[in-house]
Specification:
- With 451 residues, the chain is an alpha/beta fold.
- It contains 17 helices and twelve strands.
- The chain has three domains: 48 residues, no CATH class; 133 residues, Leucine Dehydrogenase, chain A, domain 1 (Rossmann fold); 161 residues, Rossmann fold (3-Layer(aba) Sandwich).
- The strands form two sheets. The protein has a seven-stranded mixed β-sheet with strand order 9-8-7-6-10-11-12. Strands 1-2-4-3-5 form a five-stranded mixed β-sheet.
- Strand 1 and strand 2 form a beta hairpin.
- The radius of gyration is 21 Å and the shape is globular.
- The mean pLDDT is 97.
- Bound molecules: NADPH dihydro-nicotinamide-adenine-dinucleotide phosphate and (2Z)-2-iminopentanedioic acid.
Length: 451
Amino acid sequence: MAVSDHVDLPTFMEGVRKRNPHQPEFVQAVQEVAEDIYEFIEDKEEYHAQQILRRIAEPDRVVSFRVCWEDDNGNIRVQRGYRVQNNNAIGPYKGGIRFHPSVNESVLKFLAFEQTFKNALTGLPMGGGKGGSNFNPKGKSVREIMRFCQSFMTELYRHIGADVDVPAGDIGVGGREIGFMFGQYKRITNQFTGVLTGKGLEYGGSLIRPEATGYGAVYFLANMLATKGEDLVGKTAVISGSGNVATHAAEKIVQLGGKVLTLSDSGGFVHDPDGFTQDKIDWVKTHKTHRRGRIQDYVEAFPKATFHEGKTPWGVPCDVALPCATQNELLGEDARTLVANGCKALAEGANMPTDLEGVHVFKAARLLYAPGKASNAGGVAVSGLEMSQNSERRAWKEEELQQMLKDIMFGIHQSCLTYGDQGGGYVDYVKGANIAGFKKVADAMLAFGVV
Ligand code: NDP
Ligand code: 2IT
């Protein structure tokens, strides 16, 4: 007779904490999902009996490896590389690579876990994975970055493949790094396959992949506002970060008639009361991405703006907010400040930028609040479209891709409504996203039996 796993939520979480000591980010991500899933599966015996949540919260495998490289002064440097393959029930593992000194197993396990639900929400056949290294690209020469990427791929190549695991970019990894890694993969394997996404257009990349995460997050925000009969015209927006996601989110807000008041980096935030125009956003893109500069330099170029050292932008009153930098950048007290200042809607561009207390504050305030796994899925969705184009050996037109991105974000919004509508005009998007993502992966796992 089957023994079903009817442990309650606190007991389940105690087990997760015990099995994953010193991994607070991973435990946090599991807790946020488990709170909703426990309610959903309460009367669904099969999910309990088959221990589905317990299995999704245990990565299929975690690969950790040494990455040696030589800096420009001839010193030998040693970093740690990882690939976390969380779950491939609905497709090959898929998810970005992060290069940042804060990268460790906990961070990548939380990201791979989140990615599993996010990828399911896109409706495309992609499982969840994530990788990276504690390598810090800041202050490194382009040649050093190339040597690091080559050394990283020299181990990673044996764990990935177009039908196995398809990495992409994330913090510290953009088109340039993907190019270096793809070049090394091709050199080692002598195969030209769609093994990475976010590639250059010349060698199999997709149009609108660089823009997709930020644009998609704003489309999701617009979908949420539309449920209240509102749009972005004339709305003020506070955005954190100044990288790929933040600058493209800012660009789309401006295109849809909103006014962007802030951008930030790890040194602090800039507040431009006149708003970031497209020209100013282009300046930030060039300064941060190509010149690897600091956001504080913005106030020299645009003197009406102010720089707030060491601060996050959540105290600036706004209609909508988009955290687009990193995990746990928006805490409970920031959430209370945003709500008190009249913020109407928040869409996460980053992964898990809001801490658990902040999530509870937004839920209690019945804010239009989209978790990253729903609102930032546009990036991986266009990555999925890049995979399709690579398989077909053709490239789709920009208009087609723009429309597909909009349709996918609309579809994710609909899935959130299906499972998150609480009645009385309130949609719990966190619950909606968690349940919709879980259900698809869980039902595939049930079909496979115990594997
Ligand atoms: P980038 O490397 O392009 O930019 C990262 C930005 O976040 C920079 O402004 C950086 O500041 C800031 N930042 C990074 N770490 C910290 C930190 N610890 N504290 C404060 N600020 C920090 O990365 P992306 O824009 O690609 O990624 C941003 C977020 O979006 C991440 O959470 C990522 O996982 C998520 N995401 C990205 C997707 C993509 O397609 N790229 C897809 C979906 C989600 P500084 O320059 O000072 O380091
Ligand atoms: O967090 C994410 O969704 C990403 N970094 C993008 C992953 C991808 O495979 O495009």
